[in-house]
Amino acid sequence: MFGERAPSFALSELVGSRVDEARAKCEADGFQVEVVDLEGHGAVTLDLRPNRIRLYVRRGKVEEARAG
Length: 68
Prior knowledge:
single chain, 68 residues, Trypsin Inhibitor V, Chain A, 3-stranded mixed beta sheet, 3 strands, serine protease inhibitor
């Protein structure tokens, strides 16, 4: 799912953290980050990018994180 490498942390560790903290952790690990505001439209494309982590956010906190 992650291509040639996986993040150095479990994606579930990001749940409950602030968006800026989660983004910094992902970017430090070399991933591109896409933030999806669940209070807005919440629509995303279905393309697979192994170097991307999507953070699904509500009220500034991560509710879910997915790779790809």
